[in-house]
Structure formats: C-alpha cells, structure tokens
Amino acid sequence: MAQFLGDIAWMLEVFAIAGGLVLLHVAAAERRTKFLKAAGSLLLLAGIGTALCTGYYWFSYQSQGSFDTVHGHVPMVMPMPGGGSMPDGSAGSMHRGMQTDSPAVPEERE
Predict the structure, then answer these.
(1) What is the pTM of this model?
(2) Is 102 part of any domain?
C-alpha cells in the first residue's frame, strides 16, 4: 500500500512539472506575462524538487524492504493491568476528568 502512495505522489509531481511547462509555453507566446512566467517557473521548480524528494524516499524505503508487506508498521499496543484501567481506577488520559464511580444524577445542593 505504501508503494502506491509513493506512486501517487510521483504522478502528482509529474502533473505539476507538466503544468509548469505548459504555463511557460503560454507565457512565451503572449505579451506582458510576468506572472505567468513566475507561476510556471515556481510550479516547475516545486514539481522537480518534490519529485526528487519523493524519489529519494521511495528508493530508500524500497531498499529497506518497507514495500514487502501490504501494510505499514503498526506499533504494538500493550494492555494495561486491570482490564484497561489505570491502577487508581480511572480510565486513563483519554478519559481524564471523567470519574468511573460518579453517580448518574448529580446530587442536589442544599
């Protein structure tokens, strides 16, 4: 799956490079096209720069064997003692502020 994400990024960069070349071609045929030339140059340079970066990491991950499996590395989640609760009875940082032994209806004040 990760290999296809790299391929998708590569294709988007190819489209950026092609778009930059098209803008530069249109700017050469028109008059007073300072912004078209700037946009085409920016698109072309950004496309080439990101394509080089994506290509480097794609080949780096390929050489490490990251594309040999269908899914990426998922860290192992260690279960907490007591069935997922903290030793003090709370549910952990995800439920901070919630009390497990609180009454369902708040008590009336006198």
Answers:
(1) 0.59
(2) no
Flag whether pLDDT at 68 surpasses 70: yes
Tally of domains in the chain: 1
Produce one character per residue of 54-73: b if its CB has 16 or more CB atoms within 10 Å, e if not: beeebeeeeeeebeeeeeee
Residue 83 lies in a domain: no
Would the pLDDT of 28 be above 80?
yes
